TrEMBL record:
InterPro entries: Acyl_transf_3_dom (IPR002656), Nod_factor_acetyltransferase (IPR052734). The keyword Cytoplasm does not apply. The chain crosses the membrane at residues 45-64, 76-97, 109-128, 140-158, 222-242, 262-287, 294-312, 332-349. GO terms for molecular function: acyltransferase activity, transferring groups other than amino-acyl groups. This is Acyltransferase 3 domain-containing protein. Residues 45-348 form the Acyltransferase domain. Keywords: Membrane, Transmembrane, Transmembrane helix.
Length: 394
């Protein structure tokens, strides 16, 4: 699963430049880094592996939620996973947003790849609840993200503000300051899930300021070895903290006062959770394979797995699938965990992507004006095609 058995030992292979593959700029090939060309774009196996493994952890965490009940061990594992799975995913999103600007083609991709899927799934989830849960009163609101769609709202806002974070002198301290202020401001309310947008913001900004060498640092053999006892300590501490700590802190969706805590604990928890999440995220990255794996190609479809698996989790919740007593024993919990990993894996595959591309990655060329540069390229191409027959006749 790792590169620790390579003869090169700790020799570090170069990671791709910060530009997102979506920008159409292929990263240079390297004999030490496993890259694959997909849809004419260069991808890096490390990041695709990390995204896939993170989305599997997301699905597992959602499957554990209705099962954990009074299980202290499962609750402890749940807290540890929630401490780093979304921070890791958000950090990668920030890293690949470094080159985002207000260029028309990038704004178009932001609208079609984030805003439109948000509108579709923010409508689909409440409709699904009306049908499956027989709840005709379930409202549809584009201002109040429902279940998983908060991430699309957050990503849209974060990416739009990227030029600002690339401009200011101290982006990460500023982002942490905003997150700390959010935790003492319950008046923010639920509109666009701004509490989560602001409290998770530091992880996105950290991704913006990271460089390839930072990922090299966590790939060292010493870090991989140290990550094992660190995860063990995290699990032990979480087991101790289960009866003493409100799990809602890991969701980053409430102010301190809404959790029944003194206001000053909000800023303290932001810094404490940020530090713990960074340590566990580094441990997670340390064990992410860099080479091509059987699941590497699935990393390109993680948003499909993220948004689609929610329907199955909610269907199980509405229909009482998780209420069977045998599921609340170790064997049942292991089975549900394996099923969650298998289902989200299937939802990341190419056939599923082709089936739901209309909702996740619509082209929508009809909705956008062509920019001047694109029109100029088309004119040049037409003129070139017109001249070619003249050369052939000559």
């Amino acid at each position: 699963m790792t590169n620790s058995l390579r003869p090169n030992g700790d020799r570090r292979a170069p990671l791709p430049p910060a530009q997102s593959p979506a920008d159409g700029v292929p990263s240079p090939r390297s004999p030490h880094s496993t890259q694959k060309k997909q849809n004419g774009k260069q991808r890096d196996a490390f990041f695709d592996n990390a995204k896939y493994l993170a989305i599997v952890l997301v699905a597992m965490g959602h499957a554990w939620e209705p099962l954990k009940g009074d299980s202290r061990i499962l609750e402890a594992a749940y807290q540890v996973v929630y401490a780093f799975h979304m921070p890791a995913f958000i950090l990668i999103s920030g890293y690949f947003s470094r080159s985002f600007d207000m260029r028309p083609d990038r704004l178009k991709r932001l609208i079609t790849g984030v805003a439109v899927p948000y509108i579709i799934f923010e409508t689909a989830y409440p409709l699904f609840k009306r049908v499956i849960d027989n709840d005709p009163h379930q409202e549809i609101s584009l201002l109040d993200p429902w279940y998983l769609t908060w991430f699309l709202v957050a990503l849209f806002i974060w990416r739009l503000t990227t030029p600002i974070w690339n401009l200011v002198r101290w982006p990460l301290p500023l982002a942490l300051g905003l997150a700390m202020l959010a935790t003492v401001t319950p008046e923010i309310g639920d509109d666009l899930d701004l509490q989560r947008v602001l409290q998770f913001l530091p992880f996105f900004v950290l991704g913006l300021v990271m460089k390839p060498e930072h990922f090299h640092m966590v790939r060292r053999r010493s870090v991989r070895i140290a990550s094992v006892p660190l995860f063990a300590v995290a699990l032990a501490f979480s087991w101790w903290a289960v009866p003493r700590m409100n799990t809602a802190w890991f969701y980053h969706r409430d102010a301190a006062q809404e959790l029944g805590a003194p206001w000053w604990t909000g800023p303290v928890m932001v810094l404490a959770m940020f530090g713990c999440s960074l340590v566990l995220t580094a441990c997670f990255f340390a064990w992410v394979p860099r080479r091509q794996m059987w699941f590497t190609a699935l990393g390109a479809g993680t948003l499909y797995g993220y948004l689609l698996h929610g329907f199955l989790v909610k269907a199980g919740d509405y229909q009482g699938w998780f209420e069977a007593s045998w599921l609340h024993h170790p064997a049942g919990e292991i089975l549900v965990t394996a099923l969650a990993a298998a289902v989200v894996t299937v939802l990341c595959t190419k056939p599923v992507q082709r089936m739901f591309r209309f909702a996740m990655e619509p082209k929508m060329d009809w909705a956008f004006k062509k920019d001047a540069a694109e029109l100029a390229r088309e004119r040049q191409g037409a003129e070139r095609r017109e001249r070619e027959p003249e050369k052939v006749n000559a």
